[in-house]
Amino acid sequence: MPVISGKAGTLLLGGNIVSPISNWKLTITSNNKAYAANDTGGSKARVAGVNDCKGSFECKVADTGNCPVGAGEQSLAQLHVDATGADYYQVPIIIDRIQVDVDINDGQIVAFAIDFSGNGPLQAFGVLAIPS
User: Fold this and answer.
1) In this predicted model, what pLDDT tens digit does every residue of 21-47 receive, in sequence order?
2) Which single residue of 3, 14, 63, 79 has CA 20 to 30 Å from 88?
């Protein structure tokens, strides 16, 4: 069984592709709550809490475009892991931070590093979906 390479991953914000993008990251969490009671056998048990996500992406600065989002802006993100168009996460997001990286010493390519937080329910499609 072949594995999926991230080399063809893409990011769409509000239906528009972000380019040139070099990477994206998504962290999905559940705020699970620990408790002890007379039926937990002297150990902590947990109950699933509120789900959340956060992430980041980096796009290179091109002389024909601007940063694709602004701080505090909300958008619908589609984070594709491959070129099929079927394997992706979709989540409403809000932009937390934008960092511009300009390396004068080594002359590296200028990039926007953008951090975001989930702003609603996350959906997974294709091979990323949890089997029912």
Assistant:
1) 999 999 999 999 999 999 999 999 999
2) 63
Residue 95: C-alpha distances to residues 17, 84, 88, 98, 118 (Å): 17, 27, 19, 8, 9
Tokens (6 digits) for 103: 């390396």
| Dihedral pair phi/psi, residue 91, rounded to 5° | -155, 140
DSSP for 39-53, written as a single string:
TTTTS-EEE---EEE
What is the DSSP annotation of 1-36? -PPPPGGG-EEEETTEE--SEEEEEEEEEE-PEEE-
Interstrand relation of 111-118 and 51-60 (parallel, antiparallel or unpaired): antiparallel
Nearest to 23, CA basis, from 12, 41, 10, 4: 10
Domains of the chain listed by start with CATH number: 6-28+43-128 (2.40.30)
Residues lower than pLDDT 70 in the chain: none
